[in-house]
Write a structure and sequence with these properties.
Number of helices of chain B: 4
Structural class of chain A: alpha/beta
Strand order of the largest sheet of chain A: 3-2-1-4-6-5-7
Order of helices and strands of chain B: HHHH
Oligomer: heterodimer
Largest interface: A-B, 17 and 11 residues
Strand content of chain B: under 5%
Distance between the termini of chain B: 77 Å
Helix content of chain B: over 70%
Radius of gyration of chain B: 23 Å
Chain lengths: ~230, ~120
Amino acid sequence: MNSSETEKRDIWVLIPAYNEEKKIFQVVADLQRYGYANVLVVNDGSKDQTSGQAKSAGAEVLEHVMNRGQGAALRTGIEYIADIYGPTAIVTFDADGQHQPEDIEKLVRPIFKNEADIVFGSRFLDGKTRVPILRRIVLKLGVLFTNTVSNVRLTDTHNGLRAMGRKAYSSIEIVHRGMEHASDIIDNITPKQLRYQEVPVTIIYSDYSRQKGQRTSNFIKIGIKVILKKLLQ
Amino acid sequence: MTLIKTITVLFAFFAVSRVLLRFKEKTISFGSFLLWTTIWGAVVLVVFNPGIADQTAALFGLQRGTDTMFFFAAVLLFYLLFRLYVKLDILDKDITRLATNTSKQLHGFSNRTRKE
């Protein structure tokens, strides 16, 4: 067994999933094909066969009895993996097939080399991802706002593909149960003194992921919610 | 008795009876029981003695009793809305925590069952 294989055994890939029966099997199978055997799917109260599909692809599955949102599903998964397995890295990965398993290697490298506690994937660093113009504008406004209020320098603050080392996953507090969790995670960097890095990743926008993913109007709603919460704090 | 007085008294009686019922069921605290009984008592008092509202208005530097009534009603409503929002937020967080804990327990239980 080479060092890369040993490292892969020390990584858990966490996938929050809601009504993803069409894609989840392929997503888990692709991860396993790349050598990531440890895959945890948190089925967030799906009404379809997400759970069965994930299990038959070889994932371990936790069930939320009702839909509580992606932030809540991530918190459940992180707590479970931390308590039961305590790996060197937890990678959060989307269930709709827009993330690429080959990017995980780049994400976890700084953690295994002890150069970072948390590594964010960025779709804007290498120009390979074709982001629709309206979404690009909204995402960039989100980046500007988050960087200012959270005192960080990131180019893509709302990318679900990220890796957390032990210090990060055991100290980060996800407060919001919905999509605002991305800001929660970033908010933890400065107060918890986490070392962070950003690496280029590729996001593939398919018809399915566009249909399943966040609408641009939702990004705006999330932005307003986050701003209001910040102002009230 | 004018129609407005009759309606106010009947509604206040109905509201206080609901409050009393909730207090007997122990679904509200003594503090909440006292708060709501006082509010409805004050409403009945003002309806029968409108002069009280005018006196209160003078006390607060307002000209009309009805202005004072609306002012206090608005303040009370905003406060109750805030309390409701806080309680809903706590409830929402509790449900999420419950979902997280249940999922972990169910998973542990099904794993143990499989192993047995």
